[in-house]
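Narrative of activities, Objective 1.

The group set out to show that a structural description can be obtained from nothing but a protein's sequence at a throughput compatible with the screening campaign. Below is one input-output pair from the validation batch, recorded exactly as produced.
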Amino acid sequence: MLRPWFIDRPKRSLLRERIFQFSSNSLSKLKAKVNYECNTTKISTLQALSAFVWRSVTRAQRLPRELETSCRMADNRERLSPPLPETYFVMQTKNRWSING
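Output recorded for this entry:
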């Protein structure tokens, strides 16, 4: 396929990032649902959201259900320039997959 000489198309980056915003109302509903389904009141909003995001990531990658996954999270808000306030939630993940059996 010939491309016009005046179009400069950058190479696709392997890095993918997405920014999502969740309302406080939707986070409250998610937390209530998770605590209800687990018959507890100890699951925090951060834990519920982290699990939801991680589950979405693994589903989007079409990983087999029997695959054990893990997610490591880091709080790097202070390392950013300028630093993000504590009210911001940043999820930085490092993926690891393994099949049990």
